[in-house]
Amino acid sequence: MQITSAQYKHCDLVKPSGRIDSATAPQFAEALNQIMAKGQYKIAIDLSQVEFISSAGLRVLINTQKLCKRYNRGEVALASVPENILSALELAGFTTLFKIYEDVLTAVGSF
């Protein structure tokens, strides 16, 4: 799994690619934790290149969302979510917990 990130004026954009499963979820969590360690809690995640996400990957998303929303500091927005990932989010009941956008530009602009 590859993870790239970019910092914008109002948020950070994280773009993972490949599979987010039990083997790669810790790497994904570490990338998100590094952003939050800098005091930045507005994070957009571009999921367009993610092929698969397991329960471990979903747990990383939920934990990150909880940390970002604590004390009203920010939140996690998901962008360009593939159909199979979206159905996994729906099955887990997570679609109401995240703002989901069609494209990255809209997600970054929402902050």
Describe this structure as you would to a colleague:
- The protein has a single domain (2-109), classed as Transcription Regulator spoIIAA (2-Layer Sandwich).
- 40% of the residues lie in helices and 30% in strands.
- Strands 1, 2, 3, 4, 5 and 6 form a six-stranded mixed beta sheet that branches.
- Helix 1 runs parallel beside helix 2.
- It is an alpha/beta fold.
- Strand 5, helix 3 and strand 6 form a beta-alpha-beta unit.
- It is built from four helices and six strands, in the order E-E-H-E-E-H-E-H-E-H.
- It has helices at 25-37, 55-69, 83-92, 104-109, and strands spanning 2-7, 12-20, 42-46, 49-53, 75-79, 99-101.
How are the elements arranged and paired?
Blueprint: E1 2-7, E2 12-20, H1 25-37, E3 42-46, E4 49-53, H2 55-69, E5 75-79, H3 83-92, E6 99-101, H4 104-109
Parallel strand pairs: 2-3, 2-4, 3-5, 5-6
Antiparallel strand pairs: 1-2
